[in-house]
Specification:
Layout: E1 2-6, H1 10-22, E2 26-30, E3 45-48, H2 57-67, E4 72-76, H3 81-89, E5 94-97, H4 102-116, E6 124-126, E7 129-132, E8 135-138, E9 143-146, E10 149-151, H5 155-165, E11 172-173, H6 174-182, H7 189-204, E12 210-213, E13 217-220
Parallel strand pairs: 1-2, 1-3, 3-4, 4-5
Antiparallel strand pairs: 6-7, 7-8, 8-9, 9-10, 11-13, 12-13
Helix pairs in contact: 4-6, 5-6, 5-7
Length: about 230
Amino acid sequence: MHILLVEDDDRVAAALRPALHRHGMTTTRLARGRGAVDHLPGVDVVLLDLGLPDVDGVDVCRAIRQVSDVPVIVVSARGEVDDRILGLHSGADDYLVKPYDIGELVARVHAVCRRRGTPAGGGVAVGGEVVVEGVRIDLDRHVVTIDDGEVSLTRKEFQVLALLAAARGTVCTRSRIVAEVWGRSWPGANRTLDVHVATLRTKLGRADLVQTVRGVGYRLGVPAPTAE
């Protein structure tokens, strides 16, 4: 996932970019708003500050929306209700007030991509299905089959598997998986996630399909797609 970061504060950008990189995202950073629309090709999400030195971020958001439906998340110190309403009415998909937690920001990035339908499917997608190493994941019916035999998964197990499949083999951090599948975090969240992954490996009969990336999270061992 490629992020366009429109942020004039060097200290904020210097802290945010490596944090996003650790979550598997690449970034392009602009310190000014004018000309931001020229950098939209190839961008999956725009993180937009409002307090820019050359033009108000609200005007940048409007300019982006005139030429693209790329998801835009405003990240601003302007936290008043009127500011948030103005940002959303200007075309932003979400609004996050500084200071914010990086885990929440990453979760919101993935959330706006899901709502906008940004392509992120892994394996070979056929309609509402994802096929990875012979494991067929029906995203519409919440059914997983292997060799035409259905695998019985709980709702949470299926959600974890579907999230990993949608990541195209890139790493999903523990915090992202917990936030998107359980909707919250708690002291034992990582242990709960580990148990679900272990159960998934057993039920799928493919121990290497769900791979552990130590200190980060999990990913699917997705091979290069082949024509059927």
